[in-house]
TrEMBL record:
Stated family: Belongs to the peptidase A1 family.
GO molecular function: aspartic-type endopeptidase activity
The name this protein goes by in its record: Peptidase A1 domain-containing protein
Annotated Peptidase A1 domain residues: 1-191
Alphabetical list of SUPFAM superfamilies matching this protein: Acid proteases
GO CC entries: extracellular region
Superkingdom of the source species: Eukaryota
An example Gene Ontology biological process: proteolysis
InterPro entries per record: Aspartic_peptidase_AS (IPR001969), PEPTIDASE_A1 (IPR033121), Peptidase_aspartic_dom_sf (IPR021109), Plant_Aspart_Prot_A1 (IPR051708), TAXi_C (IPR032799), TAXi_N (IPR032861)
Keywords, comma-separated and alphabetical: Hydrolase, Protease
Matches recorded under Pfam families: TAXi_C, TAXi_N
Length: 191
């Protein structure tokens, strides 16, 4: 994984039961015997959602299974250079309902595989290109009427020292098709 953690073990297959009635035979899964790194002790397992042949999504799709619910959907983009990633068509970021001034094309997936935005369930933090991060940081600083403090000793770029909770702006990722996802404040600021 990107943070240096790893798992090793054996590969097997079994019938997967979903709820009380749905069953899908021959689903491959791994049994980890050596799981090293942050995050492995917090859960009883890990579900692979990548585009690789052994991910749960790929296996269910190849067997004609589907899961549905009341969720909104966005199209996923496939890269010919890195076909195992789930690229998502982000069109912009808004802060308190106002678009952040991010240069057009910043989130576009390029033909050489660079750019774009991926969903990675194994990565703890969102990583933005400097072209998106700098204007977002500036917009957050403008919205929070406090003097920034030096947070470099704890690895934080934008930090405030205050005795109380700070009123934070709403931060929303905007996706193709008019789908918006507002991040909970504790997903982009530690208080």
């Amino acid at each position: 994984y990107g943070d240096g953690s790893f798992t090793s073990g054996v590969l097997s297959s079994e019938t997967l039961s979903i709820g009380s009635g749905s069953k899908v035979a021959g689903i491959g899964f791994g049994c980890g015997h050596d799981n090293e790194g942050q995050g492995f002790s917090q859960g009883g397992g890990l579900v692979g959602l990548g585009r690789g042949a052994l991910s749960l999504i790929s296996q269910l799709g190849s067997k004609g299974a589907s899961l549905s619910g009341g969720a909104k959907s966005i199209p996923l983009i496939k890269s010919s250079v890195i076909p195992t990633f789930w690229y998502i068509p982000i069109t912009g970021i808004t802060l308190d309902g106002k678009p952040v001034d991010i240069p057009a094309g910043t989130f576009d997936l390029q033909s050489d595989g660079s750019g774009g935005m991926i969903i990675d369930s194994g990565t703890t933090v969102t990583i933005l290109d400097e072209a998106a991060y700098s204007p977002l940081k500036d917009a957050i600083q403008s919205a929070i009427d406090l003097t920034p403090a030096d947070g470099s000793s704890v690895g934080l770029d934008l930090c405030y020292q205050t005795s109380g909770k700070v009123s934070l702006p709403s931060l929303t990722f905007n996706f193709k098709g008019g789908v918006d996802y507002e991040l909970p404040a504790d997903n982009f600021f530690i208080q």
